[in-house]
Amino acid sequence: MAGAAAAVTRRAATLLLSSRFRTPASRVASLIPIVGANNRRFLCASSVSARTAEPAEAASQLGETVKDFRKRLRIDEVKGGPDQGLDWVGKDLTVRGWVRTCRVQSSVTFIELNDGSCLSNMQCVMTSDAEGYDQIESGAVTTGSSILIEGTVVPSQGAKQKIELKVTRLVVIGRSDPTTYPIQKKRATREFLRSIAHLRPRTNTFSAVTRVRNALAYATHKFFQENGFVWVSSPIITASDCEGAGEQFYVTTLIQNDTEGNNFNVSKIPTTKDGKIDWSQDFFGKPAFLTVSGQLNGETYACALSDIYTFGPTFRAENSNTSRHLAEFWMIEPELAFADLNDDMACATAYLQYVVKYVLENCKEDMEFFNTWIEKGIINRLNDVVEKSFVQLSYTDAIDLLVKSKKKFEFPVKWGLDLQSEHERYITEQVFGGSPVIIRDYPKEIKAFYMRQNDDEKTVAAMDLLVPRVGELIGGSQREERLDYLEARLEELNLNKESYWWYLDLRRFGSVPHAGFGLGFERLVQFATGIENIRDAIPFPRTPGSADF
Amino acid sequence: MAGAAAAVTRRAATLLLSSRFRTPASRVASLIPIVGANNRRFLCASSVSARTAEPAEAASQLGETVKDFRKRLRIDEVKGGPDQGLDWVGKDLTVRGWVRTCRVQSSVTFIELNDGSCLSNMQCVMTSDAEGYDQIESGAVTTGSSILIEGTVVPSQGAKQKIELKVTRLVVIGRSDPTTYPIQKKRATREFLRSIAHLRPRTNTFSAVTRVRNALAYATHKFFQENGFVWVSSPIITASDCEGAGEQFYVTTLIQNDTEGNNFNVSKIPTTKDGKIDWSQDFFGKPAFLTVSGQLNGETYACALSDIYTFGPTFRAENSNTSRHLAEFWMIEPELAFADLNDDMACATAYLQYVVKYVLENCKEDMEFFNTWIEKGIINRLNDVVEKSFVQLSYTDAIDLLVKSKKKFEFPVKWGLDLQSEHERYITEQVFGGSPVIIRDYPKEIKAFYMRQNDDEKTVAAMDLLVPRVGELIGGSQREERLDYLEARLEELNLNKESYWWYLDLRRFGSVPHAGFGLGFERLVQFATGIENIRDAIPFPRTPGSADF
């Protein structure tokens, strides 16, 4: 079966790439004068004549000039404008994509074509006189197959869209056997779709999540770049003792299945005399791990370039099978020099408002999809984030407020308690009616060693930004820039000062007040899309027992 | 010694943060009216009065509104304009940064201040009547110390700069003991600077590399986003068998030093009856590795969203101690659906020209630094890349050309040979006089299984983009979209077809012609800066025996 399908695929593809089916550049240019042959990519760049610019002398003798890069016409460009495509009416164009549905009726066939550039399909209306109608008759145009369509934009009769494409020509590029294609019209469960992570971006939900994730990432870069921050790639593998043991993945070449994939015999691991692993023979000469945070490294660059941010993967070998945890996730960690906790809170707020606004403005269609199908009211919730002032209050005030609420919590409230999800949600959802809230100045016992001690000697200049539904989205702090305070804290916590020599150097040589925060990118994707399980917020989720694809 | 320095640091920092030394917002606004209090960050955001916008009702009762985010004034903003700061003459301003040098003369003191925002220092001229002059006298203002300077911009007498700052007030933020600060004026070797990777961004060379690296990264995102590509995060950890064994790092929790850091006894590794590692007890339930490429994963998303790119870390456990190899490096891997090799070459060319142009336009000062100190002529070389047409020729023609050259190569030239650096450099540097060259259609035996077979059945639709000095910068191919061809190739190479089930699915269901390329980001940084050793092109290099910091 696969063989037969493949043969068809091959024939179709060969056919498609053969000169017979190529659209000559001249014809294309006359077909879509508004677009211009120079701006559009057709299937083969070679099908467009070489550009007229003079090639280098050597080139003219020994090689050919590389052609200009032309964009393929995307459905989003046609339907994504304010007129939803009405300005394209009367134009001839070519689109390529995957068939979502094909409904053959007696006089007319409707093909819904999607190319991933937007949620909208291009509705293609085909009658039996169009070139390639035999492909419809032969049953080659099925859900999941890839096709090329040439046609004329016409106003649509349907309520769902303003325009549709009257097909003049159809070419099947790659078939899709309807009896085995795993994504059928019937709605599949999220669990099932995770088992076909290579195909799930072909669904509405996952293509929309992918586009919004992309927009959030780009908006992140834009925000920091526009504010003078420098992107720094913090290391992924680290042998630094700073990171502390526990919940880390080891990275090693001491164990290696052989090239045939045969399992490794433990006796081959080099050991010292007492049967312990001989780390000196490992790739890095000592134990090495996957990083849990780029912050300490980021601080070194902030103490030279002033304002930096990291955006890269981080890891936890935590055995928790929840909808909020991944073993591999992306983190954004800005670090601001000459800044205190107020600057940090202001930056976190401005950042969050910027990226949410960017998504609301640039992913309208996808956000409406989430608003209808994933989380009713999400657009209003996000608009609130952009428009409302964020509120900050101290941990001590937050505890007061929880105690006074007289509400029964699973974890009873008292000063010193690490706030749980139930408390965080009560504060953002009940007390502040859906506004994001920043809680600051936490007890030092429940926070990390590097956070700056406040004058009360009980609390540190830490802050958590809480949002409705998700809880903590951002955690940050002013860093302890005073060498003696930092050393004292390391000793209090029985941490090995020598391991932190380079981190302490930042306080020895030109120390400056600085602050930063961390944001789990997939949590942000959850927050902005309403997707419930974090495994659906990243293309290929890694969790206990699962690292396929 | 460290203790004494710390005490000073603490005092200075405490002083600085105390209200006594804060500049009230009103005064600041009057000091620098052109800038406006709302746009600038001073040391403490709290020192500026709350914004006038109405806080949420709850907020007014229970918390404070978070302040607006204000940028700190950066030296680049003053000196980076076309007038090199002359338009700031007469204005009062505050800058913060690290002292590069402090020259005390009888009547006047010159402080070169750098804040990492640009290569240029702010030359600060201080006379004994300025506030804080006692700090000069006490020797607290040394190389590496951090200070705050208030002053008035005046035209400079020096030839090196158009303006300087006449100091009205100096505050030492953090001292730097001149007897132990590792970065002294005397030029340090690159090797030594690698051993203090946490401080090397405070040198001219490494701060410039960091800024250019940042510009290349942002330009990468801009290019692809502006062309409709979607950023996809390919997985870092993978248990997929597709990646093939060899030169991979294993990721495991089967070995774990205890929380006290005591070495792990090999006997604790779970084994099967025959003494082999029991992978079923590992975190992912089977052997897992660090990825060597995101391409195959990227293809799955291109076959849904049409045009995507990855930009993330990849890994090689290759034991090579060269100036061209890293164990951890960042890769950019775009993948274009409905595209062939010509589109791929056109995209690679447009991409490279875009990012190089971006750096030339946005990092002028840094590029002039490289042109003077690192690689003479680099600006001309990069201008050539932007302006010259790229030439493409087939591998077969390239072999012809090498044979006809009658040049003696270490690796004798004949058809089927994998081109070596000597051949690549001869072609770009000698034959094409410094132009980038793309070589295409390589023998299938020397290329990867997934590359599309050409009609001659001997070559595949692969391309390598070669540049002067660096050699291969980009490698790409059209992918084999025909299921039967791909399966036959896997069998020929004795690869396990079952492992590739999901990759083959892309050819089973709606297969499309697609193509992509890969680019090692640190090679690009080398290419754009002239930095010779790749270990100096990434903040924290990972190589055999070295994963510190």
From TrEMBL, chains A, B:
GO cellular component terms given for this protein: mitochondrion
Catalytic activity, reaction form: tRNA(Asn) + L-asparagine + ATP = L-asparaginyl-tRNA(Asn) + AMP + diphosphate + H(+)
Gene3D superfamilies named in the record: Bira Bifunctional Protein, Domain 2 (3.30.930.10), Nucleic acid-binding proteins (2.40.50.140)
Enzyme nomenclature, EC number: 6.1.1.22
Keywords: Aminoacyl-tRNA synthetase, ATP-binding, Ligase, Nucleotide-binding, Protein biosynthesis
Entry-linked NCBIfam families: asnS, PRK03932.1
Entry protein name: asparagine--tRNA ligase
